[in-house]
């Protein structure tokens, strides 16, 4: 051994004070670490994380959690045992978003196929910009997009996976603007008349973020009134368009919503399409939440008219459970618009003298450079359960939502705010102390405080996580997003029970 | 069993034709599937994918690969065995980006700690917008950003992890613009005088993409000449600023590059900082590639002056091997600018009546809504190897780059294009048929064809992947990005040998 060491020292290549012999990472030890971590992930995150008998969260206030996690990064590293303990802690104190009692936002559930695809992706570490670096994932993205485009109802289309529905909405604004006036790409907006886009008051906040980010300005998002159910009122849209024209501004885009964030409402797409056609406006549908209803032959009619859209944002990571993030931005037709609009033709990536068809180097359609292989998890899940399996998830969510709404209506301690069109259930919980009170200012003031208190108690117990918010003059109400995975029927009673339990103290 | 079935039928809850009893996902079968997939990932992607004796890629042209992968998505799902085979195929035909002979782009290498963190993240499926949903990852992001800010040399700072360096550069443009004129967020750019930003001709293409996307326009990116080494010439920057002012335009931002994409050059940050200060311009440094040199006490001087920057983009997924994507956008000072600039105050996420300090709901700093926990993989890696371990990676890459450059200079079949400042090695391979040829038009025309041909042959053999490109009047040359993981010293000779082997046929 000593001889070997001496020999190595003799042959050592020393450059700038660094010995270059041998690898810098001990591959065997590294693989051992991964082997040891896997059972922890399996038990703590995957098994317990989806077990209804476990807590959905293990609440700690920030100051306390900082201490527990010992976040500071130091000069010297730690041993494997310590690191495995850290992984365990990370999982323990993380919210179990795949838990059947996580109703906090518009995603949930653990699909094992998509999860495996995500593990594969991390291990392969691809970047989906060129065919040479990501041959498999480039083709898969194409296959998945093709199928999504079919479900939208277009004969031809193009698209790209993006890091979130918000970014997809930004793509829509940029493509619409490019179509409206290609010169803006080079010349910018300064000196241009005011560009105006339209969306309803119930739209996702990312539409305004897009307007701010893309230099259009939030004031140039004309907000169209919605009806009581949260749907854009077409006549109001017409009025706003006329108004903008009167002001000398240039209308270029309408963003309708299919599945609004709070009420789960669907804008009347067919009517909006007609208006867009008449005025020559780009018709975008933000179907991040509602797009998955397209998978259901029974329910897809709530998106009636979506085939007339020019672009669609649709996030399979929500209702279909593909895992965060899985977000497609889709454009009608095979016009090359997406690439034209975003391309920069970087010569270090997109050389034109490659030995294969460079049409497969799709990265120049994107605003990103390195880009994750988000289509693959959806692809593997789709292969695993088939179109019919995806449809079943959607149908189940619709039915569960219906059932939950009906159960809520049956009980005096709850009040349903509106009949669900999709899978967002909005309701008040009325504690006994308020049940016989006159519905005057005091009642509403007190009711407004119920949801935050109930939520706090539930989180501190780890029994449930559910959203709440005030909305359009209504005081804080609960907002329960229903996905197929969430409401195991056996626990619907318990879920409602939880609200009831919490009230006692109110 | 039959009795049980009958009982279940009797108790079945049927809504809209859907039986709601029981879960929709068979958790046990799903966990079994994950268990079975793990050894495949371990062996095929992790072990073989980093083994120098395996191929770096298994080339198939698109049409052929489509057939092999059977990409079509069908109505009916597939069994586990078939799906596991699919995972195996996906890995087999994917490029092994962690292989020691993958030099194609600016990332590579497999860090086992970061990989485990990524597996944990996928299993936990967080979205980092609020503390209530992502308590652990919100705090980790804060801890990692704090440490990165320290390394930049700022006393105080803010930041956010973004889906790519390109998006980080967009953040920079938007924050700079907001600082310059906050009204633009609401009013947009129309009617404004022309805003102008500056960057060098060697900048990453995303700077222009950002200008296009944000409505500034690519023509309003004034391109500053670089010297022979690829560094921005400060005097030329001054000239361009004066020119823009003379034209009545409004200069607002300079984007310098620390580690250019092709030559790996570092702009003279100190001098650029001085110019920005004199003219009151936002000083952004795109250090996506070069930022990691800040980890090295020995080499950080090549970023001399970066502490004077107003913002920095830095991707630990490149040199430090954190895995795609891990990209921080950093802003100097604790001014709240990042949030002010991007916030939309969505009431369904960022309720102000929560029971904890809502300062920890960091999502409104972002242009995204759901957002991945990219900071965690960097955090766990940092915990594992310490600041000194990260420093070692950087020092090793510098030394390897030096060694490779020297080896290239020793050999008549290669010509080094310039002495590396960092870890990008640019060189020609001169085949024997050209070695004694006069360096006239014919020579250059022929040399231009060498790199694409050699690359094609290497990829078809699966022996190596390396970038090439023409650049600033130089015909196609090889571009080898050196990371600590890549050049096992034992194979440097073999690596160079590979070029030599391929030439024989030329």
UniProtKB/TrEMBL annotation, chains A, B:
Keywords: Decarboxylase, Lyase, Pyridoxal phosphate. It comes from the Eukaryota. Its cofactor is pyridoxal 5'-phosphate. GO terms for cellular component: cytoplasm. Gene3D superfamilies: 3.90.1150.170, Type I PLP-dependent aspartate aminotransferase-like (Major domain). The modification N6-(pyridoxal phosphate)lysine is found at residue 318. One of its GO terms (biological process) is carboxylic acid metabolic process. GO terms for molecular function: carboxy-lyase activity; pyridoxal phosphate binding. Belongs to the group II decarboxylase family. PANTHER family: ACIDIC AMINO ACID DECARBOXYLASE GADL1, GLUTAMATE DECARBOXYLASE-RELATED. Homodimer. This is Glutamate decarboxylase like 1. It comes from Latimeria chalumnae (Coelacanth). The gene is GADL1.
